[in-house]
Amino acid sequence: MPTDGVDLRIEKFDPARHDRAGFSCGVDRLDNYLKLTAKRQQVDDMTRVYVMTADGDNRILGYHAINLGMMDVTELPKKPRGTPAHGELPILFLGQVAVSQSAQGRGIGSILMHHVFEKASRIGEEAGCFALVLDVMNDGGEAAFARRCAWYRDFGFQDFASQAGRMFMTMKQVRAIIQDPVV
Known about the structure:
The chain is α+β, with helices and mostly antiparallel strands. It is 32% helix and 26% strand. It has a 7-stranded mixed sheet, sandwiched between helices.
């Protein structure tokens, strides 16, 4: 196993340094995103991708992608106090979380999620951010979709009533996780 007894690090994706060619998480869309799209989207300032590697190794064990966005307040079960008149709230959107098949089952996904929470907390402190939002991938059938939804719910994400597979967590929840991490 490539993570046993090795220090791991998470850093911003650098296509010149990080080996994305051999990455395979078992979901073609996630593999292809890293191999074909992530570099271009970073260059064009549409997203930021962070990768996990083992010290001294340029192979990617896992990654996540984040970008900023807005959400319509009507998607929430209850309108938050102080919502702007235009009805949109600032969010951090979690685009992908993927772990290489060789590293799955070792807690890499949870470590990457904690990194997302840390980033979200910092962004919220600097610019204001109401929530962390994601869309659960439905690739692989209903069982895979249900498993992914359950995984995100275990972190505290809540479902949007208006859209199956769209989930959110308020920044208050994110800060509580950062202050009292359960690993």
